[in-house]
Amino acid sequence: MENNPRKPYNGFIGTTRAKILGLVLAFVVTFMMMYLGAYTKYCLFVFVGALLFVIPKAFGVKSFKAMAVLGVAFFLVTTFVGAYLVTIPTIEDAQDTEIEGTFYGYDVQQISGTDDYRIYIHYDGASAPTLNYTQITSCSFEYLFGSQKTSVMEKASGNQYTTTVKLADNNVYLVSFNADDKWSQTSVIDETINSDTLQKTAIAGNMYVNGIPTVMFFLVLLFSTWMRRNFEKQRAKFEAEGRLYPKGYGLCKKCGMTVLPGEKVCRKCGEPIDIPEEIQRATLAKLYGTEKCPNCGNDVIKIEKVCPRCKTQMPGREVLAEGETFKCSDCGADVPVDADKCPMCGVKFEDDSDEPAVECFKCSECGELVPENATFCEKCGAKFDKD
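The structure corresponding to this sequence follows.
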């Protein structure tokens, strides 16, 4: 099969090296987009999934299995690498009570028998600080997401302020304080969590966030696979009907235009079409069927009058003499004068049934068939005697 002239990179695209490069490049690009949080700043989750699909396809990857493995690998690696190597260390680094600036640490005490927690903070400023606390519902690498709540703190004594909030056990909460346009660093309330809770939160959060582009990837993969298989079924049907050549033989060598059976020149550029005879015969065999030659056993297309191998006339098929046939203007096949369409390429002829049949004779100069009442040959101009 020759390269499509419309795709100059066919020499590399589709090779094993190109496919491996496409798969690796797709994984690295999308992994870094998740790691760096680019999806939150410059694009949507769906764009990550689309890139995961498009990049391998651009390098010629067609295998559904290879693409599916890529999608599963992306999901597993981003989830567990994100959880264990980034998310958990990020939360653990924030699990302390040392707060920079004018905020001096905080303390958390659970009110016995309830889910209420009293939180204390030391602050030297003039205004009462506000507590900001967020329950982590999802995460991706070092990016933690959740709905933030606030609570204004009341003065307890001296520079100590307090407030009471409801915190569900076995959940991770981020806390920070602000007052007088000053903010504390973000910390984690560690009184309500343990190591199992931390791991569970990190894994579940990364699974949710990284699962969104993965789901988008598989939706696009399944839809495109379904479309391609439908297209291939339709193409196989057209090939069986003789309406398309097999793959590799249905393109113009000059411009890459699709060539249909029976065409002698390209519809786009006019280049002569050079389709191997065996391919043309195979296409016609699918269209009309074959039967065995009674003499040599060769497969003979049912529209052929004689066996192409031994020249034996096929039973029940009259071999028409010259003058009883004419050349098809589309494919050049010999067609009976009373045919309404070409038996080789299927082109339909104008209906001349209302006109009386005209007997012809062969021009003595050029061999062209001319009506018997003609006085000269339309092809070579030779004049005929009235006799």
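Helices lie at 16-35, 38-41, 45-58, 64-93, 195-240, 277-288.
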